Amino acid sequence: MIPEIQKILYTTDLSDNSAYAFRYAINSAKQHDARIVILHVIEELPSNIKALVASYIDEEEQEKIAENNVTHLMDRIKKRLKIFCDRELKDEPESLDRIESIEICKGYPADEILKRVNDLECDAIVMGTHGKGIIRNTYLGSMTKKVLRRVRKPVFVIPLPKGETDITFHDF
Q1: Distance CA 7, CA 99 (A)
Q2: Residue at 164 is within a domain
Q3: Which of 2, 51, 68, 146 could make an SS bond with 110 (beta carbons 3.0 to 4.6 A apart)?
Q4: CATH of the domain at 128
């Protein structure tokens, strides 16, 4: 028997056209009478960048600056996603009730997605993918691959369109 989908984790990197996958998440939620958790991960700085910054600013000062910036950034992203949801679902306000929460965290995207899908008890993931390079339609994005290799839940991978669509995050 196929498990019932009651909660969907919609992941977004907020890049142009990544909101395109949101429509798929909403559609799936309607079809399954499910709830949606929106997740955005603020990516950790690579260790080589941290080391470079450490040569100019001591570690304690770095942490203080980073904590202030991340807290401010999380608030801005959460507001941006709320405005986006309100705008995208203005013609069907009942779908707004399907959004259980908007989660913003800091970490490595694939790791956080895998952790949150279990912690939040989600039954499926909806995520967009950006194929890059000349053979963009042949390969999935590296982060998407990392999630697919390790996840034990259904994942709906939405290829994001090239160019501008009528649904982007950049104008918020």
Answers
A1: 10
A2: no
A3: 146
A4: 3.40.50.620
- On whether residue 172 sits in a domain, the answer given is no
Residues 6+ apart with CB under 8 A from 45: 53
3-state secondary structure the chain: CCCCCCEEEEECCCCCCCCHHHHHHHHHHHHHCCEEEEEEEEECCCHHHHHHHHCCCCHHHHHHHHHHHHHHHHHHHHHHHHHHHHHHCCCCHHHHHHEEEEEEEEECHHHHHHHHHHHCCCCEEEEEECCCCCCCCCCCCHHHHHHHHHCCCCEEEEECCCCCCCCCCCCC
pLDDT in tens, 103-147: 999 999 999 999 999 999 999 999 988 655 544 444 457 888 899
Q: How far is CA 103 from the centre of its chain?
A: 9
Kindly report the pTM of this predicted structure: 0.83
Sheet harboring 35-43: ordered strands across?
99-107, 35-43, 7-11, 124-129, 155-159
In this structure, is residue 155 part of a structural domain? yes
Q: How many domains does the chain have?
A: 1
Name which residue leads in pLDDT, 137 or 94: 94
Q: Which tens digit of pLDDT belongs to each residue from 36-48?
A: 999 999 987 767 7
